[in-house]
Every structure is written in structure tokens, then in C-alpha cells.
Records
---
Amino acid sequence: MTNHATTPPAATDTPMIVMESVEKWYGGFKALTGINLSVRAGEKIVLCGPSGSGKSTLIRCINHLEAYEKGAIRVDGITLGDDSSTIDAVRREVGMVFQNFNLFPHLTVLQNCTLAPMRTLRQGRKEAEATARRLLDRVKILEQADKYPAQLSGGQQQRVAIARALCMGPKVMLFDEPTSALDPEMVKEVLDTMVALAEEGMTMICVTHEMGFARQVADRVIFMASGEIVEEAPPEVFFSKPSHARTKQFLGEILRGH
Amino acid sequence: MNYTLDFLPVIDGLPSLLAACLGTLGLALGGMILAIIIGVGGVMLRDSGIRQVRWLVIAFVELIRNTPFLVQIYFIYFALPLAGIRLDPTPTAIIALGINGGAYAIEIIRGGVQSIGKGQIEAGLALGLHKTQVFRLIVLKPALRAIYPSLTSQFILLTLTTSVASAIAAYELTSVAQRIESDSFRSFEVYGAVTLFYLVMSWLLMRIFGLIQSRYLSYPVK
């Protein structure tokens, strides 16, 4: 009776990312203090908090760009260990977009997108290029496919970076302040791309101070300070009735500029 | 000053001098290829994260950079046979040039690698590439581009250093010139001509390095 078909749980109930009591130190400085976080498949999380609060560190632990000292992280059922096999497996599921784009300057836009799929997923050039072109089209930048990163604007580069990450077919996308390095007039094109991605059901964790984006797409807004999750709530509650003094202070500071 | 110039020995010896130029270029090319292999490999080993390997690379670089090339080439030529390794002068010269140039190349290329932002490496790792793939596919080309002028001037120096290989009678321009000079006693004419030949070879190499740069290492940067 073990082979009977079981109904898979509804997609939104499956935890895609689980962090259990994750702690991280930089020398004597505790960067993350017992982080517990569960992100359902398809959920969109916005992480905010003052600089040095550990929000970037948190998402960088998820794909093991940062090692952590204590606790456990599971991504799509894979428990992240220190061995390269689980790290590889997790990185295959998790795409990341960086503040400074980090496109490879010696490769064209198309080559930026096909490099990893050809090397790590063993895709043929044709297949990888077809995928890349489809995703470059999706971020509305296909016409720049043969240009080099330095020939693009910041906003264009960041959209390419999003397409590059998507080419690996990730189940989760991590955004580390994706609009912080952009000129104001380019923020919108990147946010629009992220909104479109969110609407297609991608599981997303975004470190950002773009509160308009948080209101529009976030299922939960998480506020961090001093390496701890201080408060988490749906955006309508988070912005109108923050419960912690530090959250209120932070929102006061960040919303004053808007 | 009753010295009369007599270029006849040089003109008579021209075919062997020109052939010796090819010998010099052969030594230089072999040395450069070996140097770049040692240079890139040495940087990878140095950054491998294994402490003993790292110290070994550092020790190698320090040993080579702080001892004379003439001693190095003598050592390889005369000391290795004692260990049962017997090589002809030309392969010995190539190995010595490669080892010497490689030690300098390690230092130069390392500088280039350090100039590459951490973000580049993280982006590669986040895409699931391994450390060695990140180095080879993402870091290496921009790093070489950054230090290309230093590396090529080191390689010109390596080319000129081939003349030291005359000390073990490897087949190259200086040793052939020495023979013609000792037969004719026309030192000024012979070494004047040889100077010109070295100059032309250096210039030629610079042109080739320039072509390689525009073909393989150029891409737009901000």
C-alpha cells in the first residue's frame, strides 16, 4: 500500500527555503543571531533594515556565498552542507542578482547568459542560446544580445543580470539591493522586471528599500536589525501598524525621503 | 683612430646569423609558452587555499627572482645530469627561460587576478560554476588584459635573456655571433649587426603582442 498516489500539497504550502537558528559571525561580530525563516514556494519576501543589519548576509547564506556557523538551511528539500555537492545542488536552484550587476565584462550579453547553463547544466550552445534569447526578450533587452556589458546602461545591465540568473532555471531568486546602484530614472525598469517575475509565481527574496515594490508584490515584509528578524508582517500591516519601535523608527527614516 | 670598418665577415655570416635569429625566437617562444603555463598554474596553485602549496609557490618565486639567470641556467645544465637528467643545451635553455619567466609571470598575473572584483567571482559561484571554472572562464581574461603591458614587456625581456643561453652553447644569435667574432675579430661590426637584429626581433614581437591583444583581449570597458 505504499504506492498509492498521494495528492501533492498545494504549492504554496511547500516550504522552499527553511532557515533554522542560523548564526553567523565575522570574527567576534555576530552578523546573524538565530535566524528562523520559512519561505513557501511562490512566496515573495521583502527584507529591509538599516545597513549592517544582516539582511544581505542572510540571503548570501542561502546560496552559501557566506558560510554560517550554526543552524541549518534547506532549499527545496536539500540541506545545505559544507560539501561542494549540496552547495552545487542548491546553487542550481537559486538565482542571485547583485547590487553591482556583476556582469562579466569580457563576454557579450548573450555569452553572459549562456556561460553557466553550458558549463554546469551541460546544455548545448543552441539550446542555451535559445533559452537566453527567450529570457532576454522577457526582460525586454533582446536587441542588445551581442553588446558588451560596458555598452549598456545600469538599468539594462541589471535586467541582463536577471535574465542571466533565470537562464539556469532557478526555483528561487535572491535580489541583493538590485536598484541601489542605479540612477533614479533606471530604477523603474528593473522594478517592473521584478514585478513581472513575481506575477509569474517565482519564489523571491528581495533585499530592498523600495517600499512601493514591497507594497505591490510582497507577501511578507521582514524587518531586520542587528542580525535579528525584528518584525515580519504582510505589507499592509507592516506599513500601517508596525509593532516594534525600531521598525517605526526605520520606516520613519526611509519613508521621509519619499 | 685608424679603425676601418669591415662588414665582410658579417655579410658572409649573414645566413647563419639569420638562422640563429630563428633559434633565438624559438627559445623565446618555447620559454614564453612555458612561462605562461607556469604563471597561470602558479597563480591557481597559490590561490588554491592549501597552505603548503601556497608557500611552495612563494618559495619558488622568491628563489628564482633573487638569483641570477646565468646561475639558474648553469644549475639546470650542469647539476641536473648529476640527478640523472641529461638535456641538450636548447631544451635546457627553454626550461630555464620558462622557469625564470614563469616566476615573474606568477607575480604579474597575480596582480591582475587581484584587480578583479570579488563580485565577479561571487556572480560565477552563484551561477553554480566551480572555483576553477570561475578562474578560467571569468577571472583569467580580464586579469590578463589588466596586466598585459607588464606581461609583454617581461616577455621581451625573456627574449633578450635568450642571449645568456650562449653560456651553455644553445643555438641562438649571440652564440653564433661569438663564433663569427672569434673567427674574424670584427667585434664592432658583428655585435653592431646583432644589436640591430635583437632590436628588430623585439619590435616584431611587440607588434605580434599588439595583434594578440586586439584579437583576443579587447572588449569595451567603461
Note: The domain at 7-217 of chain B is CATH 1.10.3720.10 (MetI-like fold).
---
Amino acid sequence: MAGAPMPEDAVTTVLGAPEIGRALTRIAHEILERNKGGDDVVLLGIPTRGLPLAHRLAERLAAVEPSLDAAHLVGELDITMYRDDLHRHPTRPIGTTTLPADGIDGKVVVLVDDVLFSGRTIRAALDAIKDLGRPRAVQLATLVDRGHRELPIRPDFVGKNLPTSLSERVAVLVEEIDGTDAVTITAGEARA
Amino acid sequence: MRHLLDARDLTRADAVQVLDTAAEMAATQSREIKKLPTLRGRTVVNLFFEDSTRTRISFETAAKRLSADVINFSAKGSSVSKGESLKDTALTLQAMGADGIVIRHHASGAPHLLAHAGWVDAAVVNAGDGTHQHPTQALLDAFTIRRHLADRGVAGSGEGFDARRGVGKDLAGLKVAIVGDVLHSRVARSNVQLLTTLGAEVTLVAPPTLVPVGVGTWPCTVSYDLDATLAERPDAVMMLRVQRERMSAAGGGYFPSPLEYSRLYGLDQRRLATLAEHAVIMHPGPMNRGLEISAQAADAARSVVVEQVSNGVAVRMAVLYLTLAGSGTAAPVPTSKELA
């Protein structure tokens, strides 16, 4: 992590692979603690980068609780068709939604996303879950909370709170997609 | 995608994208709650100048599953029967704020005129115009073929939801026979273009009287002998309806008698038995049982006629999504995580 002042558009790495690994391990323990075990827990990753994070959390849950099978804990929740900003952008490709074999009825669903920002993605995810079943509870795990919420949504499990200005861009890179694990901040133009 | 007027307008990448979107739509249709909020607040007008049951119902179902408001307009019982022009009808729909217009018209080219004359801002989807084009039928046929056959020869596939089988693939290497009344068939025209774009080899089989002029320029081969074509072991056999309403009485001189047509070009029990193990039988409907297709063939396990109907809803949901959901004419971009 660089200490020197950065010029405009410079990329600062705020978390590296070891920090991300530690944060996920801690979140996994918090999930088990909060839910008194992992029996009813289902992890739904929000594509693109929430999904590999959900798989990693599932491996950690299964490592702590041998009764759990990591492969059957994870689902994929695409929220494209539930977004409130579809008309403001060019057409988005629709992703895949798959649920664990037992579905989500009566389960504790933990939504997993990479960055929590306005909260609109999570609002869309809650709407999508409502159409898929009736979980007993929905919780939210995010690797980075960068603030600036536009909706009354809060995370249950946070890897790192990252105070940012609206003009900065936060990117999460994961090994499975980007070839490396990192969280970076880029200074940039102010968002509209 | 701004409009969908002609199967020729789609590149291979466009077509695969529509089919992949349709696969995700199909996956949502096996849920208990089938409705999605995606097109809430948008209005889709079904503008049908020609009779249709399944296409209109299919578009209506697709639009409603995406939460769009649907207005059905059929020429019978409307001011069209009082002599209103297409232009005035279009201006009326524009004034009512239609976002999408699904049009079927007996005149070839009417959807193109509606899309490009500047009368309406709405996205126009061609639901069949004259003997010209029926692109969503071709897309649903391609989707059905891909779902059943795209895995052939590819090891290790077939996992996940059935609806998503073949996602990302085209139809390269598959042989499709399209049999029957090609002359009057917009379904055949659109299918030849789309299936060829997707890499399939298409053979048209028809009596010489039911082959259109200029077929030599189409990207397909033409055969007058159904048995010879079936001997080449096609992967899919698509039977076309004999469109007797477009002919005069008793076949109108296109063929001597229905019985002769059925003997020479019908998919009967004997021909059914010669099909390859994996081959599927398709028909765009409505079927003339006993004329172009026998009851045994229509009801055979390898007949996917009923599945074509449910795939039609998914494909039309995909088309409505791609023409109506985005901010305008821009091509789809890969998902960027700007609203994390």
C-alpha cells in the first residue's frame, strides 16, 4: 500500500490477497456464529465477482463444519432483470440464476457481493429472492463497504469498511476472473 | 437491437446472444413465480392484420411475463375494416405511447415500412409479413434445435438446467431438412437464413410447384425427393404446413391431390422409421394431420412440436427484452460493475 500522494487516476491497492483471505475467513466464522452453525445457510453469489467470493466462503464454512458440503451451499443470483436502471443503460446481457438443490425456502440466505455502494443491487437481489422462494432470513455479506448508501440497506458481514469519495472508483479483482486478488481505488471523474 | 424485422439482419453473434438470453428466460419459466418485473411500465401493442392464435398468444404471454402492458389490436373489428391506412393506425399507436409494436401483416414489407417510415418511435418486431419473414419463429426453431442437438459430438456437456443446454453454441455441422410448402412459407425463408447464419446445412424439400422463384440464390440446397434427403440422415426434420388458404380449392394446381402430396412429401410411419436415432421432428403449427405429417409422427417421442410452443414464449421474451429494456439502439455491452 503506497503512502505517497497519488496523482489523478492513480490506482491504489488497499487490500491484497492475504488481507482478502483473512477477511473471508473472519466472515465465514461470523456467519456460523450468527446462525449458530451452518445447517440452514445458503450462500447466493451475485455475479460477476460475488460468485467466486461465495464459493470461497462456502469452502471455509465446510472447513469449519465438516457436516457441510461446500458444493451444495452456493447458488448464483443474477439480478439484471430486477434492476431499476435498465432504461438508463444499453441493454445488459442476462446472467445465470441457479439455486442449490434444496432451494431457499426456510433457509437463511446470505447474499454475497464484492462491493456494497448505493444498495440498489441488493434491493434488486431482495426482489429476485422474493420471486424464487421464501427464506427464513436474508443476510448480506460484502467484501468492501464503500458507503454512500441510497437506500436503507446495511450489511451483516463486512470484509473492510472503505470510506471513499463519490468520485473514486472501487474495484475488486478476484483470482478466478482477473487472475489476481486485490481491492483497488482509482481516483476519477465525479459520478453524475 | 432496435427492431427485429428480418432474420438476415442478425449476425451469428447476435443470433447466439438472442438464443442465450432465451435460455435464461426459459429457465425462469420453470419457476413457481414466472413473472419478472423487467419491462414494467412499458407498453407492447400486438398489431395483427392477419389471423393468428399461437403467435399472438405467445407474444402476449411473453410480454406479460415481463410485466409489460399488452394491448391487442386485430384488424377485424377495428377501424382498419373501415379503411384506415397503416400510417394512420401507426400514428394512433404512437399517440397512445406504445413502446413496442409486434406486427403481423398480409403484405410483405409492412413491418419494415412501420419501422422506418418515421411514424412511430417504438421498437418494431416482425411477427410474420406476407410470404416474406417470420424471424421469431426461426429463432425459436433454432433454439429448439440447439437445445436438443448442439451437444452432439461434444464430450462432457449436458450439466445444469435443461433450459440452458447448448448455451453459447451455434448450430455448426447440423443438417436440417425443411419439407413442404416452401413457396408460401415465411417460416422456411427465415429459417434458411437464420439456420445458415448459425452454421447449419439446410435442405429444402418440396414439389417443384411449391419452390419459390429465385431459390437458387438462397444459401441452401433444394431437393424434390424426400426419401433421398432422409437417407442423408438429417438431424432435424421440419415439416411445413400446406397453406391451403393461400391456394385455391383442391390444391390450386400446385399438386394433383392431397393424397399424392401426402404420399410423396408427407412424414408418414415408413419415413418416420428411417430417421436417425437422435433426429427431432418439428412443425411450426398448426398441423394438417394426415396431409404433411401423420399422427404417428406428430405424436412420436422425438416430435418437439409442443416444446416449440413453450420455447416460443422464451424466445419472444428474449426479443422483447433485447429490443425494449435498454436505453436505445446501442448494442449490448458486457456487464460492468458500475453499480456495485
Note: Confidence is low (pLDDT under 50) at residues 153-161, 329-340 of chain B.
